[in-house]
Amino acid sequence: MKNSLIIALILVLIQGCGGTKKDSRTRADALIADKVESKKTGDHLQLPGTRIFVVPPKTFVFNKQLIRLQKDVKNYLQFMDVPGNNYNDRKKKVLNEYENAEKKGATIHFKKEYTLNGYSAFMMHAASPNKGIDQLIFMMGDESFTVLAVGQLAAGDTVTRDEMMGALKSVYYDKEAVIDVADLQTYTVDMEGSDFKFASNASQMFSYTVGGKGNPLNDVFIDEILIMTLPGTKNFEELEKFAVSNIEKLKSTGMSIPSYKQTKIKVGDYDATEVVFEGEFSGKPNSVYIVITGNEKATVYFCGGAYSNRAEYMKQFKKIAQTLRIKE
Q1: 3-class secondary-structure state, position 37
Q2: What is the model's pLDDT at position 27?
Q3: What is the pTM of this model?
Q4: Do 116 and 36 contact (CB within 8 A), yes or no?
Q5: How many angstroms separate the Cα of 26 from the Cα of each of 100, 109, 123, 243?
Q6: Are 296 and 325 in contact (CB under 8 A)?
Q7: Are 208 and 196 in contact (CB under 8 A)?
Q8: In the 3-class helix/strand/coil scheme, how is 239-294 assigned residue by residue?
């Protein structure tokens, strides 16, 4: 399930691009060298819970909850550290979608493959599905990890673009860095009495698998609970809309979802939206239980997906979801 959501995040960004096809090779070469080197300095910020170090632009502040560097809510760079994920495999999926979008006339201002501190890297500047918005997409890594950054900025704002690109060129990935994933968790949850234990995380996406075993990034059919931290909101309707948009994103990855049931429930003291469906992915039936809840401080997304022992695990998903609490 985690793998599907990460793919959805990237693909939706690219598939929505529209406009006039452009030749970006010369422009990309002028903006980014074939080989970029950065050294970790006192100006570098280690993004909590990750092995990513970056020099923030002077006009940006750091939003710890979202692992985001932002000038304001409309101009930001959001990062994700995905250990155990093969960069080349992920890049292929992104480039395939890029090529499909370009054939349909997508506005791609530039794209560039290069190396950053010896690691393979990729950057693309493209029009967003939202009018008046551009996006920067950055990836780097090797066979053991992938770093993903997605930037949003106003269309035509070359000043902010250059600030973001400067930050991305400064990225330093330290495989030996000490991290504490608890720094990223804005929630508590009780897995006691269930079959599920913490397995891994990709930045603010936390995976719990049966016995804590297996790698959800390499096994799309693994039984898994995924819990993700999102921005807080006071508007319950936003949670309901997000749940529906999430269904559409899962469909975009190839998951068949003939129908689903959405219900308003309570989780502790907070309202929550619950989504239940029986679907199919790559010919294999699955059962999925989603709960989204929170407050103005944080939103928590809970998704349990089962391919085996489906009836029993659905019971466990519902019981565990009721233990979710937002940290004070």
Answers
A1: coil
A2: 65
A3: 0.76
A4: yes
A5: 21, 11, 14, 41
A6: no
A7: yes
A8: HHHHHHHHHHHHHHCCCECCCCEEEEEEECCEEEEEEEEEEEECCEEEEEEEEEEE
